[in-house]
Amino acid sequence: MGKIKDMKEYIGTGELMNDRRVWKAFLAEFLGTMFLVFIGCGSCIGSWNEGYAPSVVQISLAFGVTVVSIAQAVGHVSGCHINPAVTCAMLVARHVSVIRALIYIVCQCLGAIVGAAILRGVTPADIQGSLGMTLRNEKIDTAQALGIELLITFVPVITVFGACDERRNDVKGSAPLAIGLSITTCHLFAVPITGSSMNPARSFGPAVISGLWQDHWVYRAGPILGGLAAALIYSYVFRAPKDPAAYDVEMDNYNKRTNNA
Description:
Elements: H1 7-11, H2 15-18, H3 21-42, H4 56-78, H5 84-92, H6 98-122, H7 142-163, H8 175-194, H9 200-210, H10 218-238, H11 244-260
Organism: Penaeus vannamei (Whiteleg shrimp)
GO molecular function: water channel activity
Family: Belongs to the MIP/aquaporin (TC 1.A.8) family.
């Protein structure tokens, strides 16, 4: 996940012409977001059986595990952003070009619309409700909802940056699992409050198909601001040093301080 230093490369005009793999990445972002909305929002639909209602745990796991699965499947193709907030974060940190970022966001939004449309097509009309549209709890105002969406998006985005930092040599686990768990834990907190969007495309798809646009600006501004904040803080404060040896020394000193505490 190296930074783009050349300005021409950062704009990315030549990327579309010279790199055929970029078109596979666009398809991966489309399909990944489509399945995220189809499965994740599908978990929000209730009343399949009498007395049945989806739980917060069910919804949280559906979104988190879906992200893990998709990231494992197509992470090597597109980076598996499947979220405009992640793409904006990668753009400001200069890990993707401007052209790629714009097309990623278009593909993500189109995928979300298709996912919500498929969900509407395969579920009975009397239980569809809002198709899993994120809605603000009436006990909080829009400013509070904006703050919550900003903060819960900050967590998975900074996890993405930390797990994918090519300078680190201490990460031994699975990056897709870490990212998916960060999404799950934020859903466990925020589903009853804001619906836990943390993804403008995830809210955009159901909004288009259901026609519900209440407080929709919150689900665009909050996640994008949270993603940008995470990208800037990680890039300029937390990113591992260039020199692997210096990083090893830094980690050894940290471990010594921890053990002596």
